[in-house]
Design a protein that fits this description.
Layout: H1 2-22, H2 56-70, H3 74-87, H4 92-104, H5 108-121, H6 126-139, H7 143-156, H8 161-173, H9 177-193, H10 199-214, H11 217-225, H12 235-247, H13 253-265, H14 272-278
Helix pairs in contact: 2-3, 2-4, 3-4, 4-5, 5-6, 6-7, 7-8, 8-9, 9-10, 10-11, 10-12, 11-12, 12-13
């Protein structure tokens, strides 16, 4: 019976991870908190968690928190996940789900405080490092802070191209396009060094966004048109490519509408005027 209970909990956690991943751009390479390779490979034990606690009270609080998430009682879940973290300061899963609750409640500042608290006691926790970047860039949209953070992470972990990728994206959002162009080339090179077969596509993706931001729509379309297969389900890609197609001297309205419809379908916040204009 105990094994069946843990299996049920694991299934709940997988479901929550899918929900978390769905909130994040397809280009964001962060991994879920609990990441077994497949559903079938789930262990029937608590060992599938990132850092199991040996504190019985912390574990009980955590499970109660999970049950309240399932019941969509986020405020109550926050109380129990906070309790679990207090009872075991190294219980990273409690922090992860506490941050998840804050993000669902649209309280990114509290989510950030949660990750900072975990990193204070466990500075090498890679999942927490990545989630902190996620919160700064996607939730808070504080690109000055995200640029500072990703630059530091890139300096500390120079062989990890993810940090450079999001440093580049932060500089694009800050309209530091010359710097972003240099970083984009370095990002592509780092991905190649890591053996990533999509490194050229990642480079073209960044070049396309930079040209879009600079108003070079012809160049943006050239770059983005080469990677449609790889990025066909990426909301941001479809939006930017669609807008660039509309901005050409000879606008490709039909094709633009197809891509902007995809962006809308995948959750991109398309302007109401554009939705109305294209009849989406």
């Amino acid at each position: 019976m105990l094994q069946l209970y843990f299996m049920k909990i694991n299934r709940i956690i997988l479901f929550l991870c899918i929900l978390i991943s769905a909130d994040i751009s397809a280009q964001y390479l962060y991994t879920p908190f609990v990441s077994p390779d497949t559903y079938e490979n789930f262990s029937d034990s608590y060992d599938t968690f990132s850092c199991p606690t040996k504190n019985e009270k912390a574990y009980e609080c955590f499970i109660t928190g999970i049950n309240n998430i399932v019941g969509k009682k986020m405020d109550i879940a926050i109380v129990y996940f906070s309790g679990a973290a207090k009872k075991d300061s190294l219980f990273c899963d409690a922090y992860d789900y506490l941050a998840y609750c804050y993000r669902k409640k649209n309280e990114p500042e509290n989510a950030l405080k949660t990750m900072n608290a975990l990193l204070k006691v466990d500075p090498s926790n890679y999942s927490a490092q990545k989630l902190k970047g996620d919160i700064l860039f996607f939730d808070m949209k504080d690109y000055n802070l995200s640029a500072q953070y990703f630059r530091k992470q890139s300096n500390d972990q120079p062989n990890n191209p993810e940090w450079m990728f999001y440093l580049t994206k932060s500089m694009i959002e800050l309209n530091e396009l010359d710097t972003a162009a240099i970083l984009a080339t370095e990002t592509e090179w780092l991905y190649k060094q890591k053996g990533n077969l999509t490194a050229p596509e990642i480079g073209l993706y960044l070049q396309g966004i930079i040209n879009y931001k600079a108003g070079n729509f012809e160049e943006a379309v050239k770059a983005l048109g080469k990677i449609a297969t790889v990025y066909q389900e990426d909301a941001e890609y479809n939006y930017i490519y669609g807008v660039c197609l509309l901005k050409l001297e000879d606008p490709k309205v039909k094709k633009a509408k197809e891509h902007i419809e995809k962006a809308y379908k995948y959750g991109y916040d398309v302007e109401k005027e554009l939705v109305y204009q294209l009849g989406i």
